[in-house]
């Protein structure tokens, strides 16, 4: 389930001001606006006479109002309004980007049953500094939900950790990822059942050894991120391929950490990789391991 809300907020730099208003003190401010929008910068010095807007020393317009139409990233920068006597009246640092779109969230459990990971992307990227609120709770009609934080290792990470999930539950967790920046906010709420998002990391230490009779012995180790392979065992598929991608064979599943394949062709080079899956069939298979290569010598 995905739901998103977006609310933009803009500075009073868009409002018109009359020449009779009192002068504003020399000030500097950040102004955030959406790419493609029209931006109006105004300043006052008790009178509109002699005011001008400059950027990088170049005069952009003579007068108290600067209009920027259909803004793009090249319009970002520092704009300064000067009085008739050359004093700076107002400085605006224009920063452009997008209000957040609802994050695209996916969750998987490479360390089942200890924890799960959730990551997210946004399209388009907001560009502007964006803060993420990351929480989750267990849906239970019998009591009020206890909202927990989905922990991130670093503030800039777009990934967080769900901990202490209830195993074999038929009631989902709801994962909330809310993106907030100066132009608005957007939220995605994703229902998650821990048993359905199991996805181990690929096996490691894959090795292939040639045996007499055109056989190959393949062995591997469980992914180190899988915390308890004895009580939550894995099964494995082994993929052999040679020549083009169409010349391939997948063997398995195996509940051991090795296998022997016979009937291979002497002189041929084989590439071998292994994937892992929960032995009970929960979730989905890991990605394939990095391939190892072996060439069977001709006798």
TrEMBL record:
Q: Which CDD domains match?
A: FN3
The UniProt keyword set, sorted, is:
Glycoprotein, Immunoglobulin domain, Repeat, Signal
Q: Which residues form the Ig-like domain?
A: 19-97
Specify the Fibronectin type-III domain's residue ranges.
202-299
Q: Does the keyword Zinc-finger apply?
A: no
The answer to whether keyword Signal applies is yes
What superkingdom heads the lineage?
A: Eukaryota
Question: Which residue intervals make up region (Disordered)?
Answer: 1-30
Listed GO CC annotations: membrane
What GO molecular functions are on record for this protein?
cytokine receptor activity
The record's family statement is:
Belongs to the type I cytokine receptor family. Type 3 subfamily.
Q: What is this protein called?
A: Epstein-Barr virus induced 3
- Cite the source lineage: Eukaryota, Metazoa, Chordata, Craniata, Vertebrata
- Gene that specifies this protein: ebi3
């Amino acid at each position: 389930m995905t739901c998103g809300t977006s609310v933009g907020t803009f500075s009073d730099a868009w409002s018109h001001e009359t020449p009779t208003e009192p002068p504003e003190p020399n000030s500097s401010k950040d102004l955030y606006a959406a790419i493609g929008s029209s931006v109006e910068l105004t300043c006052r010095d008790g009178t509109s006479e002699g005011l001008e807007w400059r950027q990088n020393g170049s005069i952009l317009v003579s007068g108290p109002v600067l209009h920027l139409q259909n803004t793009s990233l090249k319009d970002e920068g520092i704009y300064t309004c000067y009085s008739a006597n050359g004093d700076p009246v107002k400085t605006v640092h224009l920063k452009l980007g997008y209000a957040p779109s609802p994050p695209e969230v996916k969750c998987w459990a490479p360390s089942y049953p200890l924890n799960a990971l959730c990551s997210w992307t946004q399209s388009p990227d907001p560009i502007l500094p964006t803060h993420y609120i990351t929480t989750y709770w267990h849906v239970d009609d019998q009591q009020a939900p206890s909202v927990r934080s989905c922990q991130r290792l670093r503030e800039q990470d777009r990934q967080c950790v769900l901990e202490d999930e209830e195993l074999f539950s038929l009631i989902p967790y709801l994962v909330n990822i809310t993106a907030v920046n100066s132009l608005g906010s957007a939220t995605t709420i994703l229902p998650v059942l821990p048993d359905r998002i199991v996805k181990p990391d690929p096996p490691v230490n894959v090795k292939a050894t040639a045996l007499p009779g055109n056989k190959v012995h393949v062995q591997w180790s469980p992914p180190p991120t899988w915390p308890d392979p004895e009580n939550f065992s894995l099964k494995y598929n082994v993929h052999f391929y040679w020549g083009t991608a169409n010349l391939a064979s997948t063997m398995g599943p195996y509940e051991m950490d090795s296998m022997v394949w016979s009937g291979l062709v002497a002189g041929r080079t084989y590439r071998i990789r292994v994937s892992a899956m929960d032995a009970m069939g929960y979730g989905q298979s890991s990605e394939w391991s990095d391939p190892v290569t072996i060439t069977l010598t001709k006798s």
